[in-house]
Design brief:
- This protein has 14 helices and eleven strands.
- With 444 residues, it is of the alpha+beta class.
- It folds into two domains: 217 residues, MetI-like (MetI-like fold, Orthogonal Bundle); 114 residues, no CATH class.
- The strands form three sheets. Strands 4-5-11-8-9 form a five-stranded antiparallel beta sheet, with no helix packed on it. A four-stranded mixed beta sheet has the order 3-6-7-10, with no helix packed on it.
- β1 and β2 form a beta hairpin.
- α4 runs antiparallel to α10 and α9 crosses α10.
- The longest helix is centred in the N-terminal third of the chain and has 31 residues.
Length: 444
């Protein structure tokens, strides 16, 4: 049955039943892009490679972690129990915890500082290029570089060369280690130092290598109070305990005058080894304190068991600070300048603008950098393997390196190595999930 409705222009027929929708052919014509089947065809090769290089290794590592050294030796969760009971592995976990806490904070902080400062200098591009340049160097090459930087000898290691230069600027480090007196009735070794009597007091020293003499040493000569010299004649000859023409004085030696057990005067030997006390009267004894015979300051033992982990973290920060700076600088460029200028007009100081406006607006970028650095620290391998000497590698060990060493570096226990790989994957997964969720929120 057909009803009629009356409109302004008269009745119009309305047919019974539903209004017909678009035909399948019309829907197909309106679809944008290729069909889903074609998309699956193009995704198939990537999915196959993903299964071969990611899914299968994870599954096999999980399976292999349930066995011991031999693939037939089923141990269940024994390998995972070993991770939390073995003392060496507990040290490894502790080192990874130090890495995760310290390294990302340092990298993010330095990147933020560099990014902010580059906006206020004229040669910002050149500075960014220099800071970012380590990113062009492989981690293995960076390890080789810092292995040389941390050399103990200041003549080879840049770090100790800087430290010794600064130290020697404020405190002399002239010393004659292993030196000893040529003892006689008037010269004796006592309490780690040397005591002498006589006027003048002549103190012959031996036990010094000829090439270790200071370059400024002059032929020995007795002063008003005495002399300290290297009692050795090149080529042989000479008289023991007496100053010969070819023998050199020892400059920079601290000499004390002692009366009744108290030091009443102190002086230092000249380039020819001579010395003289001023204002001392009466009988006194000459003493060379033990500090003259200790090794000069040669910096820190960067590659020792105490500083090896901080030293390697320093190399990591050197490599990645430029990466953080570039990302943060890009986020800084996107900040509306109106907000910064408005705060300055309202009387905010630069520190308040930085803390209350710049950092909050940069928080998404800072989070990206921070999470990325956490993932990189959990995977660190090359730097520890190259920088840490074999003698202290246990103290610097991290999970990724221990996984390789246990499995292939002589341990021969692929079951424990697989358990370490799964443990490392479990540690990385939360940060990966955090990044994925953040990407989805930004796209929504």
């Amino acid at each position: 049955m057909t009803e009629r409705s009356t409109g302004p222009q008269g009745p119009s027929p309305i047919a019974d039943g539903p209004v017909p929708g678009p035909t399948p052919q019309a829907s197909a014509k309106r679809r944008l892009g290729p069909s889903p089947v074609l998309a699956y065809v193009f995704l198939l090769p990537a999915a196959v490679l993903l299964g071969i290089w990611v899914i299968y290794p994870i599954g096999y590592s999980l399976y292999r972690s349930l066995f011991g050294t031999l693939p037939t030796d089923f141990v269940g969760l024994g390998n995972y129990a070993t991770i939390f009971t073995d003392q060496n592995l507990l040290t490894t976990i502790r080192n990874n915890l130090i890495w995760v806490v310290v390294a990302p904070i340092l990298v993010t902080t330095l990147g933020l500082i560099f990014a902010v400062l580059t906006e206020r200098i004229r040669w910002a591009t050149a500075f960014k290029l220099i800071v970012f340049m380590p990113m062009a160097v492989s981690l293995m090459a960076a390890g080789v570089i810092f292995r040389l930087v941390y050399e103990q000898d200041p003549d080879k290691g840049v770090a100790n060369a800087i430290l010794t230069t600064v130290h020697d600027t404020f405190s002399a480090s002239q010393g004659y280690p292993n030196a000893r007196p040529r003892e006689s009735d008037t010269v004796k070794a006592e309490g780690g130092g040397i005591v002498a009597s006589g006027s003048p007091a002549l103190i012959p020293i031996v036990g010094i290598r000829q090439d270790n003499l200071p370059s400024g040493a002059q032929p020995a000569k007795a002063g008003a109070s005495g002399a300290v010299w290297f009692d050795f004649t090149p080529g042989g000859g000479g008289r023991n305990g007496e100053i010969d023409a070819s023998e050199k004085g020892l400059p920079g030696v601290t000499v004390e005058a002692v009366q009744n057990g108290a030091v009443v005067a102190t002086t230092t030997t000249a380039d020819d080894g001579s010395f003289a006390f001023e204002g001392v009267s009466g009988a006194y004894q000459v003493r060379l304190p033990q500090s003259n015979f200790t090794a000069p300051y040669n910096g820190l033992s960067w590659l020792g068991p105490t500083l090896i982990t901080p030293a390697i973290i320093g190399a990591f920060v050197w490599v990645w600070a430029g990466f953080a700076m570039v990302l943060i600088a890009a986020g800084l460029a996107a900040i509306p300048r109106d907000a910064l200028e408005a705060a300055r007009i309202d009387g905010a100081t630069e520190w308040q603008v930085f803390r209350r406006i710049t950092v909050p607006l940069l928080s998404p970028v800072l989070l990206v950098v921070f999470v990325t650095m956490i993932i990189n620290t959990l995977k660190v391998f090359d730097l520890v393997f190259i920088i840490a000497p074999a003698s202290v590698q246990d103290e610097a060990m991290v999970l990724a390196l221990e996984m390789w060493r246990v499995s292939f570096g002589g341990g021969g226990n692929q079951g424990l190595g697989s358990a370490l790989a799964i443990f490392l994957l479990i540690l990385v997964l939360p940060f990966m999930i955090m990044n994925i969720r953040r990407f989805r929120r930004e796209q929504s």
